[in-house]
Amino acid sequence: MSPQSSSVLGHRGGSAALARLRPLTFSLPPELVAPSPPEARGMTRDAVRMLVASRGDGSLVHSHFSELPRFLAEGDLVVLNTSGTLAAELDATTPDGTDVHVHLSTNLPAGLWTVELRRQGAAYLEAEAGTVIDLRGGGHVALLTPYSLGPGGAGVRLWVSLVDTPEPLQRYLARFGRPIRYGYVQGSYPISAYQNVYATEPGSAEMPSAGRPFTPEVLTRLVAQGVGIAPLLLHTGVASLEADEPPYAE
Predict the structure, then answer these.
(1) What pairs with residue 151 in β-bridges?
(2) Residue 2 confidence class, pLDDT cut points 50, 70, 90
(3) Within 10 Å of residue 167's Cβ, how many Cβ atoms?
(4) Tally of CB atoms within 10 A around 64
(5) Residue 204's closest CA among 117, 103, 124?
(6) How far apart are CA 206 and CA 20, in angstroms?
(7) Which of 60, 127, 140, 196 sits 20 to 30 Å CA-CA off 44?
């Protein structure tokens, strides 16, 4: 999704309701796009801006995430997704010699994965079922069957695939993988920049970024004032859909 033209689309009541909804489109000024993590700009994680909306009177307050404890009270509950981010982007080559990137998305039963192929910043939709793609270091990805079609039903966006690596996958990703990043991010950053401070188990293709501004200091202040902390584990898949594509099933 382009940072300059973003869409918000709710889903309530199934596919029929989805068909009736219209995307809310708005323009995001370039100066408000974050090209790098706050730490790379001399800030702490919790120094990012935060908008607080009140259900009671509809008021809006502009603040910073470091002030989150000021807006919560004893007995409130904060739910944290403890999924960690994988180095889920891999360099690969198709049988005809085309260089592509493989994005691991979701771990399925029986050791299968949904994967996305990308080339030059866009979805690569020309692959066919049965194709075996070579990875660095002797790994392979076999595309088995479509999982999600591309825009307008053209090509395949996500494939159910068998990922074969010469060593355990987590170790292989640590050697050859890198974090999936969006096109508006300037520069490359280590996997630590894509991890929430409370992450416990790697498994998300892209960072569950809503929790990125949390710091140990913010969490300590919340606990000290009696705010409850509830962990859950929800591994997230790729979110690099085009503007005209509906969300895929999870």
Answers:
(1) none
(2) very low
(3) 14
(4) 14
(5) 103
(6) 29
(7) 60
E strands in 94-227: 99-107, 113-119, 122-123, 132-135, 140-149, 156-164, 201-204
Q: Given CA atoms 185, 190, 191, 193 in this order, what sign does their dihedral have?
A: negative
Can you tell me the distance from the alpha carbon of 43 to that of 46, in angstroms, rounded to the nearest whole number?
8
Closest CA to 215 of 79, 44, 85: 44
The one-character DSSP state at 185 is: -
Which residue type does 15 have? S
Instruction: Assess contact for 137 and 166: CB atoms under 8 A.
Output: yes
Residue 35: band (very low, low, confident or very high) from pLDDT cuts 50, 70, 90: confident
- β-bridge pairing 49-53 and 60-64: antiparallel
In single-letter form, the type of residue at position 30 comes to P
In terms of DSSP bridges, do strands 201-204 and 83-85 run parallel, antiparallel, or are they unpaired?
A: parallel
pLDDT tens per residue across span 121-150? 888 999 999 999 999 999 999 999 999 887
Assigned token pair, 222: 């919340």
Question: Half-sphere exposure of 244 toward its Cβ, with a 13 Å CA cutoff?
Answer: 5
Which amino acid makes up residue 239? Answer: A
Among residues 193, 205, 186, 220, the alpha carbon closest in space to that of 45 is found at: 193
pLDDT greater than 50 at residue 11: no
Distance CA 95, CA 133 (A): 7
Residue 232 predicted with pLDDT over 70: yes
Assessment of whether the complete model's pTM goes beyond 0.90? no
Residue 194's DSSP bridge partners are none
* Placement of tokens 């690099």 in the chain: 240
What CA–CA distance (Å, rounded) separates 243 from 103? Answer: 19
Answer yes or no: are the C-beta atoms of 205 and 236 closer than 8 Å.
yes
Spatial CB neighbours of 99, under 8 Å, sequence gap ≥ 6: 91, 92, 93, 119
